């Protein structure tokens, strides 16, 4: 039998190739696995919520939060239009010497079934207020203006001012300015009012009933 020394000793394998292979396995395991396109889209669909269930954009949500609550349209429109849009139904314009006749007219209108709201300067003007401001405010806050035309009215500069102011504010509003003539002839009727009819106060009731009917007729047109 031949001696074992006669055979060449087996060469040891180099460790270098094994080291390269181990590095390759390490890199392969450390790299993230790339999914197919269909798998990526599926994962995106699962991870992200659908736009149907997404919260609204900040601009939309803020706009919705600023939306005022609904209001009763009927109640607001009824309080801001028609008869109740002004503080008074009638403003009685008169001179100082005709205060008693003006008070009788106001008592008649307010005591009627219509319960008309009247402005009487001596009673309703603001104490300490400027005369011009009070007169203009009384006219603008009333639907109708009754001009108590007497000899004292024609001689009072403030009465003429109210008459011209009433005509300038509503020159085309038929039935809004109502002249009531007392103690004057037709020839003394002011030239500024010649284009409208007047109520003759020489009747048994002093023309008060006609004045009330004229006011009610106008209020019906705006109701």
UniProtKB/TrEMBL annotation:
GO MF terms, alphabetically ordered: identical protein binding; Toll-like receptor 2 binding; Toll-like receptor 4 binding
Coiled-coil region(s): none
Composition bias type Low complexity, residue spans: 1-11
Pfam families associated with the record: TIR_2
Polar residues bias (residue ranges): 39-51
All copies of domain TIR, residue ranges: 86-215
Keywords: Cell membrane, Cytoplasm, Immunity, Inflammatory response, Innate immunity, Membrane, Receptor
Region (Disordered): 1-84
Assembly information from the UniProt record: Homodimer.
Protein's job: Adapter involved in the TLR2 and TLR4 signaling pathways in the innate immune response.
Name the record gives this protein: Toll/interleukin-1 receptor domain-containing adapter protein
The organism's taxonomic lineage, starting at the top: Eukaryota, Metazoa, Chordata, Craniata, Vertebrata
């Amino acid at each position: 039998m031949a001696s074992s020394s006669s055979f060449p000793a087996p060469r040891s394998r180099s460790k270098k190739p094994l080291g390269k292979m181990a590095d390759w396995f390490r890199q392969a395991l450390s790299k993230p696995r790339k999914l197919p396109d269909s798998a990526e889209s599926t994962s995106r669909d699962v991870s992200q919520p659908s736009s149907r269930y997404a919260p609204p954009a900040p601009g939309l949500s803020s706009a919705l939060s600023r939306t005022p609550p609904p209001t009763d349209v009927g109640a607001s429109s009824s309080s801001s239009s028609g008869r109740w849009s002004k503080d008074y139904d009638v403003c009685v314009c008169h001179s100082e010497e005709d205060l008693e006749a003006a008070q009788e007219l106001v008592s008649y209108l307010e005591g009627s079934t219509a319960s008309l709201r009247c402005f009487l300067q001596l009673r309703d003007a603001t104490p300490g207020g400027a005369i011009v401001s009070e007169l203009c405010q009384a006219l603008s806050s009333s639907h109708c203006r009754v001009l108590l035309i007497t000899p004292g009215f024609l001689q009072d500069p403030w009465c003429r001012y109210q008459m011209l102011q009433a005509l300038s504010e509503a020159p085309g509003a038929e039935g809004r300015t109502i002249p009531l003539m007392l103690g004057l002839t037709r020839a003394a009727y002011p030239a500024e009012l010649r284009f409208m009819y007047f109520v003759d106060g020489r009747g048994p009731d002093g023309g008060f009933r006609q004045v009330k009917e004229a006011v009610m007729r106008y209020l019906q047109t705006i109701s």
